[in-house]
Amino acid sequence: MFLELNNLLNTTPERAEQGKLTLLCDAKTDGSFLVHHFLSFYLKANCKVCFVALIQSFSHYNIVGQKLGVNLTMARERGQLVFLEGLKSAVDVFFQAQEKPHPLQFLREANAGNLKPLFEFVREALKPVDSGEAGWTYPVLLVDDLSVLLSLGLGAVAVLDFIHYCRATVCWELKGNVVVLVHDSGDVEDEENDILLNGLSHQSHLILRAEGLATGFCRDVHGQLRILWRRPLQSTSQRDQSLTYQYKIQDRSVSFFAKGMSPAVL
Amino acid sequence: MTLSEGARLEMLDSLHWGVLDLAKCGDRDGLSIRHSVEWEGRSLLKALVKKSALCGEQVHILGCEVSEEEFREGFDSDINNRLVYHDFFRDPLNWSETGEALPGGPLGALRAMCKRTDLGPVTIALDSLSWLLLHLPCATLCQTLHAVSHQDSCPLGDGSPVGKVHVLGLLHEELHGPGPMGALSSLAQTEVTLGGTMGQASARILCRRPRQHPTDQTQWFSILPDFSLDLQAGPSIESQPHSDPHIPPVDPTAHLTFNLHLSKKEREARDSLTLPFQFSSEKQEALLRPRPSQATSHIFYEPDAYDDLDQEDPDDDLDV
C-alpha cells in the first residue's frame, strides 16, 4: 500500500471504515496502481479478500504485491485470499464439466446473461466461516475490472445488478468493503460504459479518479488523482468533499503532491 | 411548520406544497428530483418524506438502492412509524430464491398501490426512479406511474373518493437518455433539478400546474442533520472554497525590503490631496479669470560653454 495515499484518504489498515463501496476509475491513463494499493491495504488489515481478477494473471499481482510488502501466494494458502483468475478459469467454462454453474458462465450464453453465478461465487468465498479460525476482520471484494465485462457481452444493467447484490451482501450484510475498477472511455462514445460508470458513482461512498494530464505525457508527473467523498455519514451536507493531487509512480511507491508542486519543477 | 409562516417560506410552499398542498393541486401529483453525482438528492427526498410524514400522511417508500436502515437513519421514531418501507434492496431480482423477496418485484408493489383501499392521503417515494427505469420498459413504468397517481380520480365501487396520492421520485440524470427523461418529465407536475455553486446547493424548480403558466424558480437551500429544509437567499460567503488546508495561506506583504504601508499622517495627507483634473468651483474660477499679477511660465536657460549663441536663424538661407 502507498503510505502517502493512506494519508490523503485519512485512513490506515487498523482503522479503515467498513460497509463502503469504493469506485476506482481511470481516464487516459492506467489506474491499476490503485488496485494494487487496495489489495495490499486490505491484506495488511487482516481482511478476508475475494479478488475477481479478470485482467492480469496471478503472478502479475503477486510480483507487484511483493514490492508492496504482501505475499499473495501465502495469503491464498492460508485462506485469507480467494483469487478468481479470470484468464485461466475462463477456459474452464468450455473444457471442464461443472456440476454447478461456473462463475464466468455468462461466456457460454448467447444472449446477454446475468452475473448471478459470479455473485454466488463471491458470496460463497466471503461468507463467515463458523469455526471461527484465523479470525479475519471483515470481508472485502476487489474487482479488476468491470469494463471488461461489458466487452465480453454483458449489458451495463447486468453489471450494475451484480454490484448491487455484492453491495447488499458484502457491504450491508457482512459489513465489509467493495472496491471496483471501471475505465472511463473519455472521448470515445460508449453509452454502456457511461451508464455503468455513472450508476456506480451514485452508489459509491468514495470515488478515486486517475486522469492523465490534459497536456499529454510527462516524465515527472504521471497523472492526476481526484478524490471525491460521497455520502458523508456524519453530516448531511450537500457538498461532497473533493480533492485533486498529481502523482508520480515509482518502483515501490507513489508520491503525491499538490498541482504544480512536483519536485521536478520546484 | 405551518403554511401560514412568513414570506420566506413561500418558496417552501412552492417547492413541495405545490405538490402536497391539496388546495392548489390538480390531478397530476408527481414530483421528480433530478440529481447528479456531485449534488446528491437523497437527503432532499428524505426531507420531503419527513414533511409528508409530519403532515400525517402515510408514506410508502419503494427502496431499491439503499438499505432500510440507511434510509431510516436520521429520522426520529414518530416519523419512522409512519414510513412503510418496501425493501427491494436486499433481493430485487429474486436471486436468492428463498421466497423472502416480495412477489412481483418493485413493479408488482407499485401496481398493488394502485388498488389500495384506505382513504387517507398517501405519499409514495421512489428510491429510485432511475433503478425502475433501468429495469423496466419505459412505457410500462410510465403507465404504472400514471395509474398510481390518477387513482384519486377513480372512486371506489361504493362511490367514496380515495385520498390524494403524491409521488416523489429520485432520478439520476446522467443515466438516462432524453427520451425516457422527457416521458417522465411530462408525467411529473414538478421537477426539481439540483445543482449548486461554491458549496451551496440550489434547486431549480419547474412547476407545471394545469391551467396555469409554468413557473421556473431557483431556490438555494441546505438540509439540516435532522432532515429539515433550510431555505437561503443565496450562496453564503462563508462557504467560499478555502485554499488547500495542507498549505496555509501566505501573506505576500510579510517580508519585503520596501514599505508598503502608510502611516496615519501619510494617509491623511494622501486623502486631502486634490487631483489635478478635479475641478472644484474655485479652481474653475481661477482658470477662467487669470490675474494679471500671475506671471506666465518662465523658461530658465543656462547655456553651456559649448553652446552656440548665434541668434541667427540657421534656416534663413533657405529659399523657402
Automatic annotation (TrEMBL), chain A:
Pfam families: ELP6. It is found in: Cytoplasm; Nucleus. The keyword Transit peptide does not apply. The keyword Phosphoprotein does not apply. InterPro entries: ELP6, P-loop_NTPase. Component of the elongator complex which consists of ELP1, ELP2, ELP3, ELP4, ELP5 and ELP6. Belongs to the ELP6 family. Component of the elongator complex which is required for multiple tRNA modifications, including mcm5U (5-methoxycarbonylmethyl uridine), mcm5s2U (5-methoxycarbonylmethyl-2-thiouridine), and ncm5U (5-carbamoylmethyl uridine). The elongator complex catalyzes formation of carboxymethyluridine in the wobble base at position 34 in tRNAs. Involved in cell migration. This is Elongator complex protein 6. It comes from Aotus nancymaae.
From TrEMBL, chain B:
Keywords: Cytoplasm, Nucleus, tRNA processing. GO terms for molecular function: tRNA binding. It holds the Pfam family Elong_Iki1. GO terms for biological process: positive regulation of cell migration; tRNA wobble uridine modification. Belongs to the ELP5 family. Residues 304-320 have a biased composition (Acidic residues). Coiled coil: none annotated. Its main location: cytoplasm. It comes from the Eukaryota. This is Elongator complex protein 5. The gene is ELP5. Residues 280-320 are annotated as: Disordered. GO terms for cellular component: cytosol; elongator holoenzyme complex; nucleoplasm. Pathway: tRNA modification; 5-methoxycarbonylmethyl-2-thiouridine-tRNA biosynthesis. It is found in: Cytoplasm; Nucleus. InterPro entries: Elp5. The keyword Cytoplasm applies.
